[in-house]
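Journal club prep — side note

Before the paper discussion, L.F. wants everyone to see what a predicted structure for a comparable chain looks like in token form. Sequence:
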Amino acid sequence: MKKFTSLLLAGVVILGLAACSNNSSSSKEEEKDTGTHKVEAKNGTIEIPNKLNKIVVQNYSDEAVTLGQNVIGTDTYAYANPHLPKEATEKIKDLGAPMNAEKIAEDKPDLIITMDEDQVDNYKKIAPTILLDYNDKAFKDIDSRLEYFSKLFNAEDKKDEFLKEFDATAKKETARLTDKGIDPSKSTVAIIELSGNKIYSYGSNFGRGGQVLTRGLGFKQSKEMQEITDAGGFKEVNVESLANLSADYIFIDFKNTDKSQYEALTKNPVWQKIKAVQDKKVVQMDFDQVYYFAGPTATEKLLPVYVDAILDQTNK
């Protein structure tokens, strides 16, 4: 009887401890949902809700969606992103450029993220506002951006889940190149965009597939591209300055309205002497898919697009 009583008491104690544990877990979850945390930004230390139901974010809508946030508005440029899932884009409004404060206020977001310093005073009347600096080294690639935003959104698990999936996709797509004798780790790239009568060259973190090629597929930046990456992201150039371009591959994009400029460029004697041109390693990309989109989801979606273009256009 004593043994039975002891066992019964032990059971009661265990159940009591389990109940306390469950209550503690519930309390922690409730605190996570209802509390606040502080975030360092260009405009200081900002206190924001732990649980965000609706956010407005300039430029970085891809990062926010990737990390499971409910984005209800973004700027005109990021709004054009064709790579985000439909269920996310259906909720997102084009708020203009700069984002219109009156339109933002209509939907009562919990948080606003912007790069427009002169708009902060207007935005913070609506919701806590985070001011970011695009040129900050904390945003130099998809890994550093995901690191920052995952802490901002309390979404480290989402970040880890995405990067695991991304790395698996990148490995698979890189293998398609190596199977055809293309070793990205031993090949250098350059990125060029035509706009009107101007030529621009880009670094690794200004859209135009820079992160796809370097972080995703493992291509090396050419000397010229590395200099542009280090200097701020893009640079206006001319054909003559490209004469000694050292890249093994050139990736080029332009609007349909600038197709005649590309045709004229291909007939230029200086262009025809460039190493990658002579080696038939110029890869033309669709401007509307690549020009502005450097977020994590866009980068992942573009991995097979770039591999297809490389193999198709270099006759591999």
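L.F.'s comment for the group: The chain has two domains: 37-154, 181-313. Keep this in mind when we get to the figures.
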